Amino acid sequence: MSAPERADVVLGSVPKLGPLYAAAAGKQAAGWRRRRAVRGRGPGAPEEVLRLPAVRHVVRGVAADPGRLAAYQRLVGDALRDTLPSVYVHGLAFPVAVGVMVRADFPLPLLGMVHLGNVVEHSRPIGVGEELEIAAWPENLRAHRAGTRVDMVVEASAGGVPVWRGVSTYLAKGIGAAPELAPGEPRACLPPAPTARWQLDAATGRAYAAVLGDYNPIHLGVLPAKALGLKRPIAHGMYLAGRVLATAAPNDCGYRWSIRFEAPVFLPGTVEVALGPHNGTVDFEGWNAASGRRHFAGRVGALPPAET
């Protein structure tokens, strides 16, 4: 099947996440009222068909802020260098993707969506002074036993050539759930000897938000997290990825990395982390020593020379 044609929506600048989250809250409130009205029509009321908008949001001339870059590097324990860490590129592009997800024709609710994982190809080192074109679009809407999954694809290009591509997978719980799908095999967590222990305080989510602007309420404090069904705030998944990549990423060449999230890291909290070589790559995982639950696992490795 050929890829659908997408219309480009060119934005004048990268949108601010605060107004986007406010728009998401308003959209979800309106959707709740609409669904209540539909249920009130009684048996036979038509259900909404989930379709993704055939658009790409595009922003040109995006550049890193050196001060914010240094703040990010200090936050995750990375070296201060004049090339962009992969998660920092994600942070530059994330508001463009969120702008797609708060569109009126995007069928899933942004707030409360579960971040399942990422696959990223960082094709070459990206200089702090390079101007990037950011494009974001949704694809691969599919059923899950707990709801509906979707991929948000983001590409960053320099001089017309893609230099970074990320696919973030999200789950909207309770939307179009397909209980006939059999649950996956539970992943046994038999953790290796830890190579690091992270002590994350209650302000970790706010610190990440202050640097990269992601003020999703689930990361900020107890009250906003409880309003979205969580007992305490949780760490940003990309903060956790950034901590790992600060140690494991080969920053002098192109590289590919992936991460899957299995259980949230509640704040404050302690995460045991292990990194180890595996066939030319580095495997990593993080877990809760008290419960034995794995929080995340993934892999990072250099791209072959022909692909850089």
From TrEMBL:
It comes from Zafaria cholistanensis. Residues 200-275 form the MaoC-like domain. InterPro entries: HotDog_dom_sf, MaoC-like_dom. Belongs to the enoyl-CoA hydratase/isomerase family. This is Acyl dehydratase. SUPFAM superfamilies: Thioesterase/thiol ester dehydrase-isomerase. It comes from the Bacteria. Signal peptide: none annotated.
